[in-house]
Write a structure and sequence with these properties.
Elements (H helix, E strand, L loop, with lengths): L2 E6 L14 H8 L9 E5 L4 E4 L5 H8 L3 H4 L15 E3 L5 H4 L15 E5 L1 H9 L3 H6 L3 E5 L6 E4 L2 E7 L10 E5 L3 E4 L11 H7 L2 E5 L10 H6 L5 H7 L8 E5 L14 H7 L2 E3 L5 E3 L17 E5 L3 E2 L4 H10 L8 E5 L5 E2 L1 H16 L4 E4 L3 H13 L6 E4 L23 E6 L2 E7 L4 E4 L18
The protein binds zinc ion (2 copies).
One zinc ion binds next to loops.
């Protein structure tokens, strides 16, 4: 099961902070156990690793991760050359503690290759328009993937994140918090809980929430400095979300070096504990659990597409049936994108592949796009080879094992709903018709119920 690790529980400057001589800094200099690193999380599933924010302490954080066998032995990290240090990155905003560690990803250091980096539009623009970050993109060390707050994205199948816009001073970019699989919430930076109307309801739905705890109370910095860097005070947070504690884990993180919670013997800890909260620490971990299926999947009102769920067996016996039936129902003549769920496939032969590519060619000619979701590795490999050489695949994209797809035309993918014999769902602007595959043809079926969607990884993706 995937786990979330706290790589850094300090505010952007870490503890000790550069140049600072607060008692906490002095103590931390003398005792490594008291040190806290820049704000960051990692998601490790034994196979892949996602980095959430890249703090200036990334080097030390990566060293610590190497002591986690699920990370060190996972995926291709055991390879000899150019291991993918992380399989994907998500950035919350452009304050130094959250992205400046990217300096180590370029040609002077790790020289990573095309790590998908999920960012909002403004963050993408910031990285593209400013040196030295633009070089990471020009040299393909990172591959920016723009995300839309509120819309889930999948770094890989079974890991679903949603960025949530939060109010936070935005000199360069907007700021997002992150929901992971609908279970773990991460909001390291926010000006004020009251300025985020969805705060309470969002925390309520998550099993674990890691929350901005930069300052404990008003008297930590001079009054003017406190105004310049607005953050909720821990004393307020304990009251504001007090009634939510106990039933779920509320974990305080992003501690400024002045925060009394940096001193393990300070009474502030008793106050936090009594209120049912916890204080984050380095390498603290949480089980992530599978994606929580949303109570209701919202289909965009103007959504039109033909969604084909391929049967478990797609071979010479089943494919012609699908094809003939599709023709009889006029599926061929429907001018819309095609989304193909391939995750059920257990058997696929070359004639089925040929049929699939005929379909891609036909749809491509009409300017529409084909997306294949969760193709099993063999199919994916075949398509990748084919894709690389063929102009045919211009209008075709793939949701690969990491959940990436390059579609610019389709921004909603109805989730997979099992149908062992296969199914066709036709969406036309708010209307939905479904057909099942009978022994020799397509037969009208009750409209697919998206509440039965399965968002966990396909069988073949599990270890
Ligand atoms: Zn921060
Ligand atoms: Zn910030």
């Amino acid at each position: 099961m995937a786990k979330v690790y706290v790589l850094g529980s300090a505010q952007d400057g870490g503890l000790p902070q550069f140049g600072a001589r607060h008692a906490h800094d002095v103590a931390a200099r003398g005792n490594p156990a008291l040190q806290r690193l820049g704000p960051s999380l990692a998601v490790i599933d034994g196979e892949r690793a996602l980095l959430i924010d890249v703090s200036p302490d990334i080097k030390a954080q990566h060293e610590r991760l190497l002591a986690v066998p699920e990370y060190a032995n996972g995926g291709a990290r055991t390879g000899m050359s150019a291991p993918p240090i992380f399989d994907a990155i998500v950035l919350t905003h452009a304050h130094i503690g959250h992205y400046a560690g990217l300096i180590h990803f370029g040609r002077e250091a790790a020289s990573t290759k095309e790590i998908p980096c999920f960012v909002t539009k403004s963050m993408a623009k910031f990285l593209r328009d400013n040196g030295p970050w633009d070089q990471l993109i020009k040299l393909n060390n990172l591959k920016l993937v723009e995300i839309t707050p509120g819309k889930p994205f999948l770094p890989w199948p079974g890991l679903e994140l949603t960025a949530l816009t939060v109010p936070h001073r935005g000199e360069y970019t907007d700021t997002v918090g992150l929901s992971l699989n609908g279970r773990v919430l991460y909001v390291p930076d926010i000006d004020d809980w009251k300025q985020w109307p969805q705060a309470r309801e969002t925390i309520e739905r998550h099993e674990v929430s890691l929350l901005d705890a930069t300052f404990f109370s008003d008297d930590e910095l001079g009054p003017r400095a406190m105004k310049e860097v607005p953050h909720p005070r821990v004393t307020e947070t304990l009251k504001y979300f007090g009634e939510l504690a106990g039933k779920r884990r509320l974990v305080l993180t992003h501690l400024n070096h002045t925060n009394p919670l940096c001193d393990p013997r300070h009474d502030a800890h008793k106050q936090v504990e009594k209120a049912g909260f916890e204080v984050a620490s380095e390498m603290m971990s949480f089980d992530l659990g599978p994606v929580r299926v949303p109570a209701k999947v919202e289909v965009p009102r103007d959504f039109s597409a033909v969604v084909v769920t391929l049967p478990a067996r797609a071979d010479a016996a089943t494919l012609p049936v699908m094809r003939a039936a599709a023709e009889r129902f006029g599926v061929r003549d429907i001018h819309a994108h095609r989304i193909i769920h391939a995750r059920q496939i257990e058997q696929l032969d070359s004639s089925s592949l040929a049929t699939l590519f005929d379909l891609i060619e036909e749809v491509g000619k009409s300017g529409h796009e084909v997306i294949i979701c969760d193709p099993p590795p063999a199919l994916q490999k075949y398509i990748e080879v084919y894709h690389a050489q063929s102009a045919l695949c211009k209008n075709f994209s793939l949701v690969d094992a990491r959940g990436r797809h390059e579609s610019k035309l389709i921004d909603f993918i109805p989730p997979f709903v099992p149908a062992p014999k296969g199914r066709v769902d036709i969406y036309t602007r708010g209307e939905l018709k479904s057909f099942g595959f009978g022994p020799s043809e397509l037969t009208p079926a009750p409209a697919v119920n998206l509440a039965e969607a399965v968002l966990s990884p396909p069988k073949w993706a599990k270890k």
